[in-house]
């Protein structure tokens, strides 16, 4: 299962790719700009209906699948994680050297 941060990253990537502002997304999803911004930044635990509205507005669908199916999807190409900050790089020297 994805973390809230990963889910927010997926939604935010779709928003940026489609060049939609927070206000436009909020209006289209029937949400307040504040609720939209919090959900998209992963700073709050939004309601499932909020996530469904945002995903739908971005042309995405939230789907529940059995664990075995999700594990198969994990091997599929995904959006790369956000780049590490300098502090994160210092905290995990294996990443810096290309060692996972």
Task: Please give a structural write-up.
Helix content is 59%, strand content 0%. With 100 residues, the chain is an all-alpha fold. It has a single domain (4-96), classed as Orthogonal Bundle (434 Repressor (Amino-terminal Domain)). Helix 2 crosses helix 4 (48-57). The protein is globular. It starts with a helix and ends with a helix.
Spell out the blueprint of helices and strands.
Blueprint: H1 4-17, H2 22-29, H3 33-41, H4 48-57, H5 67-74, H6 86-91, H7 93-96
Q: What are the defining features of this structure?
A:
100 residues, 59% helix, 434 Repressor (Amino-terminal Domain), 7 helices, mainly alpha
Outline:
The protein is mostly helical and 100 residues long. It contains 7 helices and no strands.
- Uncertain segments of ≥5 residues (pLDDT<50)? none
> How many helices?
7
CATH superfamily: lambda repressor-like DNA-binding domains
Name of the CATH class: Mainly Alpha
Give the biggest beta sheet: none
Please identify the oligomeric state: single chain
CATH topology: 434 Repressor (Amino-terminal Domain)
Tell me how many strands there are.
Answer: 0
Query: If classified by CATH, what would the architecture be?
Result: Orthogonal Bundle
Task: Give the helix proportion (percent range).
Answer: 55-70%
Structural class: mainly alpha
pLDDT averaged residue by residue: 82
Proportion of residues in extended strands: under 5%
Coarse shape: globular
Q: Compute the separation of the termini in Å.
A: 21 Å
């Amino acid at each position: 299962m994805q973390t809230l941060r990963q889910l927010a990253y997926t939604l935010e990537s779709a928003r940026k790719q489609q060049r939609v502002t927070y206000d436009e997304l909020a209006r289209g999803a029937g949400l307040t700009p504040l609720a939209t911004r919090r959900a998209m930044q992963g700073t709050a635990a939004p309601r499932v209906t909020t996530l469904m509205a945002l995903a739908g507005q971005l042309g995405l669908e939230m789907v529940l699948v059995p664990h075995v199916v999700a594990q198969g999807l994990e091997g599929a190409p995904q959006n790369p994680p956000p780049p590490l900050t300098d502090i994160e790089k210092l905290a995990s020297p294996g990443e810096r050297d290309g060692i996972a």
